[in-house]
Amino acid sequence: MPAGVSEGGDATSGGDTPRRKPSRAPRTPMPEQSPVERRGNFDEVTLGYSPEEAVAEAERCLQCKNPTCIEGCPVNIDIKSFLARVIDGDFHGGVEVIKVKNVLPSVCGRVCPQEDQCEVVCVLAKKYEPVAIGRVERFLGDFDLACDIEARCHPEVGEPTGRSAAIVGSGPAGLACAQELARLGHSVAMLEGLHAPGGVLVYGIPEFRLPKDIVQAEIDALIEMGVELRTNVVVGKTVTLDELMGEEGFGTVFIGSGAGLPVFLGIPGENLNGVYSANEFLTRNNLMKAYLFPEYDTPIWRGRKIAVVGGGNVAMDSARTALRLGAEEVFLVYRRSEEEMPARAEEVEHAREEGVEFKMLCSPAEVTGRDGWVTGLVATRMELGEPDDSGRRSPVCVMGSDFEIACDTVIMAVGTRANPLISDAAPGLELTDRGYIVTGDDGSTSLPGVYAGGDIVTGAATVIEAMGAGKRAATAMDAWLQRPR
Amino acid sequence: MFPIVHKRRLSRSVYEMGVQAPAIARKAKAGQFFILRTDEEGERIPLTFSDWDPESGVISFIFMRVGKTTHQLSHLETGDALADVTGPLGIPTHVDGLGRVAVVGGGVGAAVAYPVARAMQEAGSDVTVVLGARNADLLILEEEFRSLGVDLIVVTDDGSAGRKALVTEPLRELCETGAIDSAMAIGPTIMMRFCAETAAEHGVPCVVSLNPIMVDGTGMCGSCRVTVGGETRFACVDGPDFDGHEVDFEELMSRQRVYTDEERLADAEYTEECSCRLE
Ligand SMILES: Cc1cc2nc3c(=O)[nH]c(=O)nc-3n(C[C@H](O)[C@H](O)[C@H](O)COP(=O)(O)OP(=O)(O)OC[C@H]3O[C@@H](n4cnc5c(N)ncnc54)[C@H](O)[C@@H]3O)c2cc1C
Ligand SMILES: Cc1cc2nc3c(=O)[nH]c(=O)nc-3n(C[C@H](O)[C@H](O)[C@H](O)COP(=O)(O)OP(=O)(O)OC[C@H]3O[C@@H](n4cnc5c(N)ncnc54)[C@H](O)[C@@H]3O)c2cc1C
Ligand code: SF4
Ligand code: SF4
Ligand code: FES
User: Fold this and answer.
1) Contact at 8 Å (CB) between B117 and B129?
2) B contacts of A238 (beta carbons < 8 Å)
3) Contacts B227 to A, Cβ<8 Å
4) Residue A305 β-bridge partners
5) CA of A458 to the centre of ligand 4 (A)
6) What is d(CA B195, CA B168) in angstroms, rounded to the nearest whole number?
7) B118-160 pLDDT, tens per residue?
8) What pLDDT, on a 0 to 100 scale, did the predictor assign at position A151?
9) What's the domain range around B173?
């Protein structure tokens, strides 16, 4: 066993079954399309482990007595056990372990910021590279999806309870909540404002990072469980919360409507042609398939030089989408330094490999234009000051350091706000001063029987956190539905 | 799917259509719009309700054939269906307590003006409608307006129907004679701009119904942003009605042209493919 690991990890023979020694091989690399190749297509960048690779990676796990990895996962998946199943070649068993806590392993394995969650606290990470937990999870999720629908790991659907729930929004929070309530035997209707379900998984995260047929397969599985999907229903407009709980007869409602409102910086020139919010740019491309124009009708302006403002996943996705639409140069303009970028490490690395040029410590001051179209982005150089409350060192302007980046497109990926459509039509719903819904730990809101979770409660967060919130709320909603009356 | 239950051609390039969409028909109000998609490859386009009936569950709308999607729509018939219809979206037009009001409907804007004028009339306002079009062929809904019992002034650019004038002329007269307390203009952006300017000259408030390019229609993308009173507003959720004196029309018109090249390409390809003879 590698020296220095035993103190924290207590690698053991794994309790029930005697285990072979953990492998000391380095982290199993993920096969992927080469940067040159993938810049020219929208196919998935990473190709996934083969069964042999998955086993080889799982064999690196020490099967710790005190598996700290589990604490690192927001929904506490029993990581140690699913890795043990993989070591034994029992992939079905591995899927079952994961699905107790997380119904979308194919999705989370791809998009979780593992380096900040499960993997950062893996005992191996102290000295070596952590187990690639996310990649093995993805392998298991994909393994399950490749099975015939009957052979897949489905939760048992309980006896019908005769009670019903409405789920507003079909992003990760809504999907997890719907699945859990259906499993408990309640009749569930999922209402989605757009024409297609999936939330950010479909309109935000691009195909090359999360293929849409995976999301669709997961939604099909929900429908198979009896969940009724109603698209084109905008709650607050087509129907209100009151009506859902009243004449529509739902016993409880879950709001998982996300943080869908794009933020602009309020700098001059932001309404010039060629300035997009990341939401619009990504929605046109992902949901409306503008990259396939004119086969699909929705157009997108394909710039040659693009400045993307922001440093999160949304900014990376925009920058890499722009490259794939044929941009010659893509700049990523971020106010802070690279260490502070909230994007997943893998996306940053992929973006760099593909040729995105990073302009760190630059704060946009103005979009310049001619005849209504963008010609450049003026930015001010920044320096890092003292750390703020969040521990991040906040940037301060360097006076007189303005410079202009010549470009024909600017994409603003500087955050989102709460969408007020639902709350405007529900006067009693308590909100924070920023418009997010106030909930208890169990997701309960100020309205009896109404629960909420995901980005509409926390502000922009992660897929797995939204799913966790959806599932927690489902437990409380179940209790609410079963309450003595 | 949303079945088409009636369709009628109102002029050379303007059609009326009715679609079964009960949940929406129950909620629609004058001045609101919806978003449709004809099929899986289709674009999401916004159109305003011209009528709705909660009983039968039918929503009606009037559209002008201007590009690929509306062209495609013009080929659909009763019995066909639309892939998606979402709504009602936007804030209903303010119709209460307006006193004496002029509603100006230009071109296909008349389709939006019709339910608005009707709702204002029902709310007890004294409504004058100025109905304008380039020529008699393009004039729509004259009979419908007449049967509302509002004061109706018809104008055409070439005098082929009604007065030979632009809509701003009767509007100016109404303002000058103090015959109206406020105005609402609905039609091509340039027309709304001149109506707002005309009303402003006489200190008459003028609401306009804006039509920027939209995608989701729910506040999520920001495509529909317009500058009103120096602030950025999203027309799909904050509008589509705004104070015409405050709107940056120049910017709006520029933003409406973002996709001109792509729109032309899409419609040219479609025209070839459908081989209909556009007259
Ligand atoms: C481009 C992008 C990339 C991201 N990358 C990652 C990543 O790599 N890893 C990660 O963990 N997280 C990532 N995130 C964040 C993550 O996607 C979100 O935290 C998560 O999707 C939130 O889930 P949700 O269910 O709360 O909301 P959403 O996914 O936003 O879903 C909300 C759904 O509700 C619908 N809705 C809204 N209002 C209404 C209404 N009034 N009526 C009916 N339906 C309504 C919306 O249309 C939508 O479908 C990314 C986000 C974006 C935008
Ligand atoms: C709130 C609102 C209400 C409207 N109501 C009506 C109506 O009742 N009747 C009617 O005939 N038209 C209406 N319009 C305009 C209508 O949406 C456009 O004519 C239609 O989108 C054109 O699509 P196309 O593919 O046929 O043409 P395209 O070739 O795509 O475009 C032609 C013109 O339509 C505009 N346009 C294109 N796509 C969109 C879009 N997604 N959203 C908005 N504008 C777009 C373009 O700026 C261009 O000027 C309304 C627009 C808005 C925003
Ligand atoms: S769900 Fe995310 S955080 Fe949890 S184990 Fe899987 S990859 Fe790690
Ligand atoms: S994944 Fe890491 S922390 Fe978890 S059991 Fe294996 S070695 Fe230990
Ligand atoms: S159309 Fe997307 S925000 Fe208005």
Assistant:
1) yes
2) 23-24, 27, 86-88
3) 271
4) A329
5) 29
6) 6
7) 999 999 999 999 999 998 888 988 999 999 888 899 999 998 8
8) 81
9) 100-256
A262/B269 touch (CB, cutoff 8 Å), yes or no:
no
| Residue A124 DSSP label | G
Q: Report whether pLDDT(A234) > 50.
A: yes
Residue identified by tokens 């405050």 is B246
- pLDDT score of A13: 41
Domain extent listing, chain A: 35-151, 164-260+418-481, 262-416
Residue A375, classed as helix, strand or coil, is: strand
Residue A95 φ then ψ, to 5°: -60, -45
Confidence of residue A17 (pLDDT cuts 50, 70, 90): low
- CA proximity to A420, closest of A237, A282, A265: A237
Q: Which residues share a beta bridge with B51?
A: B60
Phi, psi (degrees; rounded to nearest 5) at A460: -50, 125
Tokens of B108: 């296909």
Interface contact flag, A298 B215, Cβ < 8 Å: yes
- CATH topology match: A164-260+418-481 vs A262-416: yes
Q: Which of B213, B215, B252, B273 to mutate to test the interface with A (most CBs of A within 10 A)?
A: B215
Are B250 and B269 in contact, with CB atoms under 8 Å apart?
A: no
CATH number of A164-260+418-481: 3.50.50.60
3-state secondary structure of B181: coil
pLDDT of residue A5: 40
pLDDT mean across residues, chain B: 92
Name every protein residue with a CB atom under 6 angstroms from any ligand 2 atom.
B 33, 43, 45-48, 61-64, 66-70, 108, 111-112, 211-214, 240, 256, 263, 267
Q: Which fold has domain A35-151?
A: Fumarate Reductase Iron-sulfur Protein; Chain B, domain 2 (1.10.1060)
Asked if residue A74 has its Cβ within 6 Å of ligand 1, the reply is no
CA distance A263 to chain B (A): 9
Question: What's chain A's length in residues?
Answer: 485
Is residue A116 within 8 Å of A140, Cβ to Cβ?
no
Q: Which helix (H) or strand (E) holds B62?
A: strand B58-64
B213 CA → ligand 2 middle, Å: 7
Tokens in use for A420?
């007020």
Q: Given this model, what pLDDT does residue A11 score?
A: 43
Q: Is the pLDDT of residue A7 over 70?
A: no
Q: How many helices (H) and strands (E) does chain A have?
A: 18, 16
Question: Is residue B36 a part of any domain in this protein?
Answer: yes
Residue A16 Cα to ligand 4 midpoint, Å, equals: 17
| Domain count across chain B | 2
Q: Where are the beta strands (DSSP E) in A283-392?
A: 305-309, 329-333, 357-359, 362-370, 373-387
CA B217–ligand 5 middle distance (angstroms) = 4
Instruction: Give tens-digit pLDDT for A289-344.
Output: 999 898 888 989 888 999 999 999 999 999 999 999 999 999 999 998 888 889 98
Highest mean pLDDT among A20-34, A389-403, B236-250: B236-250
Q: Is the pLDDT of residue A475 over 80?
A: yes
Q: Return the structure tokens found at A397.
A: 């302007």
CB < 8 Å to A283, chain B:
215-216, 220-221
Structure tokens at B16: 């009326």
Q: Which residue, among A46, A98, A50, has the nearest Cα to A76 in the 3D structure?
A: A98
Q: Give the DSSP letter of residue B259.
A: T
**Cβ A419–B221 below 8 Å, yes or no?**
no
Q: Which fold has domain A262-416?
A: FAD/NAD(P)-binding domain (3.50.50)
Give the separation between CA B164 and CA B228, rounded to whole angstroms: 33
Q: Is residue A459 a contact partner of residue A436, using CB atoms and an 8 Å limit?
A: yes
Q: Which amino acid is at A191?
A: L
Residue indicated by tokens 């906040």: A394
